[in-house]
Amino acid sequence: MNEFIAPTVEYAELSPLLIVLGAAVVGVTLEAFLPRRGRHRIQVVFTLVALVAALLATGWVAAGLDEVEGASGRGLIAAEGAIAVDGPSVFMWGVLLVFSIISVMLFAERRIEGGVSAFAGQAAALPGTEAEREASRQGIEHTEVFPLVLFAIGGMLLFPASNDLLTMFIALEVLSLPLYLLCGLARRRRLISQEAAMKYFLLGAFSSAFFVYGIALVYGYAGSFTLADIHAAVDNNTGSTNLLLAGMGLIAVGLLFKVSAAPFHAWTPDVYQGAPTPVTGFMAACTKLAAFGALLRVFYVAFGGAQWDWRPMIWVVAALTMAIGAVVALTQSDIKRMLAYSSIAHAGFLLVGFAGAYGGDGITSLQSVLFYLAAYGFSTIGAFAVVMLVRDPGGEATHLSRWAGLGKTSPLVAGVFAFFMLAFAGIPLTSGFTSKWTVFSAAWAGGAWPLVLLAVGMSAVAAYFYVRVIVLMFFSDPVVDGPTVSVPSLFTSSALVVAVVATVVLGILPGPVLDLAQQAGAFVR
Amino acid sequence: MTEVLPADGVFGLSWLLVAVPAISAVVLLVGGRRTDRWGHLLGTAAPAFAFVLGVVLFVALLGRGEQERRVGQQLWTWFEVGGLRADFGLLLDPLSALFVLLITGVGSLIHVYSIGYMAHDARRRRFFGYLNLFIAAMLMLVLADNYLALFLGWEGVGLASYLLIGFWQHKNSAAVAAKKAFVVNRVGDMGMVLAIMLMFATFGSVTFEGVAAGIEDASGATQTALGLLLLLGACGKSAQVPLQSWLLDAMEGPTPVSALIHAATMVTAGVYLVVRSGFVYETTEVASTAVVLVGLVTLVVGAIIGCAKDDIKKVLAGSTMSQIGYMMLAAGLGPAGYAFAIFHLITHGFFKANLFLGAGSVMHSMHDDVDMRVYGGLSRLMPVTFVTFAMGYLAIIGFPGFAGFWSKDKVIEAAFADNIWIGIATILAAGVTAFYMTRLMLMTFLGDKRWKSDVHPHESPATMTIPLVVLAVASVLGGVLILGGWIGHFLEPSVGPEEHHDLPIPVLALTAIVTLTVAVGVFIAWRTYGTKEVPVTAPRGSVLTRAARADLYGDALNEAVLMRPGQWTTRWLVWFDNRGLDGGVNGLAALIGGTSGQVRRAQTGYVRSYALAMLGGALLVVVSLLAVTLA
Questions:
Q1: Cα separation of A307 and A301, whole Å?
Q2: Nearest neighbour of A362 by CB, restricted to B83, B574, B577
Q3: ipTM of the complex model
């Protein structure tokens, strides 16, 4: 009999991950034992405390990362080779946790719905039935959303940090499953919410299947799940290239689905529209970040040696994604769908940076994409937070025509939204400009200038529909009995303030965050 | 170009030029109604302060030796990423100092004028906030020491212009015009962005110094591409063909805006860009020829459009395009033309602001009617407006001794020296200018009155007439800048020494020919509009007249070349995204499933069609990967 050897786990370095996942488990128990009264408040406080603790732990881990000998990165491979705690991971952890804190504050908003949250009182009750009215009357709420979102965040932290494909797959599922549930929990317009959850689940499962199949093929090629081993196999050109290419393609499909790149974007508008708006904001910022992190890690670390094989494919996908996102957004009449297509377009811009695959002495593709994700996340959460505030008797007033003349009735809210639109359009002095600038210059330096040309053109197209919203809000007459703007609680207001401030600061003084992104350096194998 | 020295002494205050109007704009826009009572005063004080500071800096600059007249001030590092470093730096040199004086000087006068012009507007404070925003952005544009900070000002003036064109948002036409200006300018901005990218990729620097140092060694293709991309940016901002169409519509904005932004300052930013980037154009024949051609075509097109319009502001807008065409052409001629381009730019700033403000004064008393066919005989009722307008008129047609005479003559000389046919075209255009401006004068101030019965014309208040008088004086005397070749000499540290050119005929003879052509233009206009009665409804007119009324079909062209294909693409992509994908894939599903009945179940078919699309995409990805390798 072989002796059992206990695996070594670097608990200290993995503490952010452990805190979040541990808090999620505790959250579930709290759900079981706490009385209904006051449960919401305790869950909110507990979740926020856990996230702040994880953020502090991330800072502590970041400060203690060591240089890796013979490579440009910093960090270590933890948990028996399963998790890479390196500069990019820690940077993404930090940004993800900040986004999560803002998002959870939006989840906790109860004032604008008149004392209840944006989530269904009783998910099992059919919409419009007596059971549902009863649940609303009694103020029953699904406080499970907080442990659920903690699980999702845990998965997102693990996803871009996983150092082997199996861990990555598990992280993918851990982050996806709670999201499927959260999408279906909208209090208003339950049917489209449930439809969105169903679609997201089916398509997500489908894409996971591609991902797993890809893993299997790559394992067949390299004989290992570890990214470093795959890298070595690609470098030594062992095994059948066809196996590698097919596996690479299928893995790409699974990841491109999560970042909503065309032609795997079809779910995005439906799901963004149907999901409760706080969840949409959370997905648009955090899922995108985690998935891009994983995409970059797999393709730069494991398949870096084969980049001449996959770059043309990414070029095509990037071009298609930008074109579909920017152009189709022009004809949208629902604000959430428009933001969904805008998020597709931004995925395209991010892919432009990725396609550059530039690792010279300027800003590298990885660093520029990290910075873009950080900048974009703040504006996007902020924009969805504004959507939460503009309301009709039936819930959020998401039809664009209802937003006409909002600038005259509520100049502050309309002004904030207009500011986010300008940031999305990439006007200087907003974070949108600096982030586009870094991504495009990295791509240009990497020789992807035709893509940059297209991207600049598509930014101009996209600017048009962002400005259209501004024109609608400020230069049209208000609609008769138009939507009212609810006064939010401190949670949403502070989330909005953070989003606006971050968008301004990253536009005017991006230096510190860019430095952080640069210090993150490269991935560690 | 001479070396840039660090800012010391009074030059350390340069940043206040941008900061003071910017802070004032923020106070006015964020302060809300509390600032309504004194907002316009603060709004006027900010550019006035900048003007005083500008004069102090200008005098300080004159007090220095010629080799020390370029002063740079580093404010902070915007961002620094590896090889790319973008500083927020200011550069005060003779070129930017002249612009600072023009912008703050004319700007202050227009602020004063607006106090009276906007007195009855409930949103006057907001208007001043936007104007201050514009002043701050425009100063940023001309004071930047690198292309990225210049681009910041560039976008800032675009934003201010957009907000001000659409200021009277209750008018649908204003909102549409604002949007059009924005969209057309985005096309130009794309040129700018790509040019900056190219500079960064080639030279690793976006400062004027850095680019100038590297441009000699760059490849010919890079030099040409850079020149053409910058020209595209300049065309958008300066309303040059083919991006000219927005300027005529921009006249929907309040008249002080047309005077400040769409005549005197912002629209000349393109000329500034070309002159500032002279080191690029000196290396590339193709791009500098393109600048000359763009200028030439625009100066002719603008003049023709100006002849046919009955809307007083649109005549002036056509004229603006045409005059900027002159500047652009001069700038394209290289060192021989830079100083003259800037000279004409400054005198044009004076007399065109004068003309626009005069037109505003007329509109003010005519119930905002802009149709010249219902004006007439206003000279007796509005004496101050009439006399000041007449000074601007004499300046623009180039009446000997007036500002425009000196500056236009110099541009024509430079054009003549370069190519005789270009020279002839500029002379003819001067004649056409005389024609349409005389027509405007006759239809507005002279002849019989043709007003509607409820209109009672009256002279405007002092806040409006005093700026008119000041600008009229400047229109008369602006020519002094050329005395002894002062302006060319002064600009030398910025744009290099002026090249002297040989003319095929004596200068005096050329001046005589130009003046004669102008006289012929005036005479024809007088025969047509001065001796006969002006019909109140416009006659049908010749083919050319009708074409000119329709802006020489500029919009129709845009529509056919850009808009329709764009709409078509959008429609196609949306169809592809919504139905085509489903439709096509549903068809595929029917084939695969073998039953078309299942396809009709929309609800389940929907997700499945997405899934099939994904499958198709996955196949595409894998097959393309394999194809790349096997090929």
A1: 10
A2: B83
A3: 0.82
